[in-house]
Amino acid sequence: MARQRLREARRWARAAAVPRDLQERCAAPAERLRQVADAMAAEMRAGLASNDSEGESASSVLLKMLVTYVDSPPSGYSAQTPTPACSIKTRRAIRPKCRNGSVELFDFIAVALAKFVASEGEGFHLPEGMQRQLGFTFSFPVKQNSVASGTLIKWTKGFAIDEMVGKDVVAELNKDIKRQGIDMKVTALVNDTVGTLAAGRYVDNDTVAAVILGTGTNAAYIEHMNSIPKWCGPPPESGEMVINMEWGNFRTYHVLMRHQDTSPDLRTVGINLKEIFGIENTCGKTRKLVVDVCEVVATRSARLAAAGIHGILKKLGRDIASPDKQKTVIAVDGGVYKYYTFFAQCMESTLRDLLGEEVASSVVIKLAEDGSGTGAALLAASYSQRFQAVGV
């Protein structure tokens, strides 16, 4: 019996050493994070200069820095901002076969749109001859040819529709919309990050960037045209362009669920271990060990997210104090930031440390809830008005 207890004690000692070892390996001290921010700013410049990043050849740049053709996000403080925009978000589970066939996927979307239009009340019916304008949030890497067209570079998030790569996703959706008999067309193609930036800018004109922190992560920001060497043709009147960085993704949903378990016996952790990994009858020590590991991973992720934001601010020259104390707003959306309080607080405190109190006092992280849907609707309204003005 004593020998068995000794073996058990040794086993738990080895297990307890795992989080400590992981913490050492995952350490992200401030100096290293500043190096990450410097590298981020350098790669942003490289991506802005390289056409390889647009998917035309084997890319040697780490950041795609995709041109979005959104040159003037609508501002709620501008008299020229259109008001008839609304965001409609329907939650429908995408059937597995839709992830592997373009016909099924875009038809699925078009059918959902047709059902929505059919359910509208009389007060929402448009005058005869007026076409509905659609903002299409498509959160996959796309090389845009205009604000309302773009060819798919690659699939992510478990989708694998090979025949769609290199094709215009707007053209495909418009075909299925027409097949459903709806008088509607896509006026703005955006990903969730660009939509969040547009939504943030509409509420606060000092918004210069947006970050998504959910099942994946990405960032977009407003760049000066003279800093985009790969741009061809005359610059837009605004002199600015929203850039979709495509800075990578990570998955942390289950880390969120386990780390935030506040029940006395860590019941949620136990359920997760059983349902996801098939590990049954876990004791309190095992569950606490999982929580500790989650905290290490979440801390590293939050600190790296802060370093990424710092890199954007560095590229824009907003990482140093300005005489006029220029306000800088970063719009953030995504379940990890919204629901994982530990992550959000860790990221914000890390960014303050990296910037210093003087600069950090003028930088605001603001939640833009459902920013992608709202922003797409605002951009659709804004650009449809612009197209009507020039007779497009």
UniProtKB/TrEMBL annotation:
Residues 251-381 form the Hexokinase C-terminal domain. It catalyses: D-fructose + ATP = D-fructose 6-phosphate + ADP + H(+). GO terms for cellular component: cytosol; mitochondrion. GO terms for molecular function: ATP binding; D-glucose binding; fructokinase activity; glucokinase activity. The keyword Protein transport does not apply. PANTHER family: HEXOKINASE, HEXOKINASE-9. This is Phosphotransferase. It comes from Miscanthus lutarioriparius.
